[in-house]
Automatic annotation (TrEMBL):
GO terms for biological process: adenine salvage; AMP salvage; purine ribonucleoside salvage. The gene is apt. It comes from the Bacteria. InterPro entries: Ade_phspho_trans, PRTase-like, PRTase_dom, UPRTase/APRTase. Catalyzes a salvage reaction resulting in the formation of AMP, that is energically less costly than de novo synthesis. Homodimer. Pathway: Purine metabolism; AMP biosynthesis via salvage pathway; AMP from adenine: step 1/1. This is Adenine phosphoribosyltransferase. PANTHER family: ADENINE PHOSPHORIBOSYLTRANSFERASE. One of its GO terms (cellular component) is cytoplasm. Its main location: cytoplasm. Residues 33-160 form the Phosphoribosyltransferase domain. It catalyses: AMP + diphosphate = 5-phospho-alpha-D-ribose 1-diphosphate + adenine. Its EC number is 2.4.2.7.
Amino acid sequence: MPTPSFSDYLREHIRTVPDWPAPGVQFRDITPLLQDPKVFRILIDAFVHRYMDHDRRPDVVAGLDARGFILGAVVAYELGVGFVPIRKKGKLPFTTVEETYELEYGSATVELHTDSVHAGSRVLLMDDLIATGGTMMAGKKLLEKLGAQVVEGASIVDLPELGGSTRLRAAGLDLYTLVDFAGH
């Protein structure tokens, strides 16, 4: 039997929950990846090794609320760089900038402390998955409002059928994802 690819190995540890949070949705749950210490280490190492490269190395990692916090904080720690959270509106206690984006039914707003990055900072933007791309695009815009350069957007999962990765790339954001759930 052939050895499964790295992507297949990770996919085996992602739980699909049908009809959650709404009928017809195939929710990709990453918690099994995080629960298994070996798989979690392999996952984090994949990101860390990529961003140790001088051309990709960030000055700071920004994580999107909430699962991007888990990945981003650990990757930042391993790279020896700072971590900044991009939170849902009303969760940060200091002066913030905000960005509102459209959801399928309504809108949402995310915020970032004004002193979390500096003009010229190289930022890696992380989340667990890319669906429609709205949250990651809002994070990119927030960081750029403060003068930072988003070197790449990274996530475990890409759901290309929802169009987010295409939209993000069209907006000039390089992406790095580990598992593609196209047609699954």
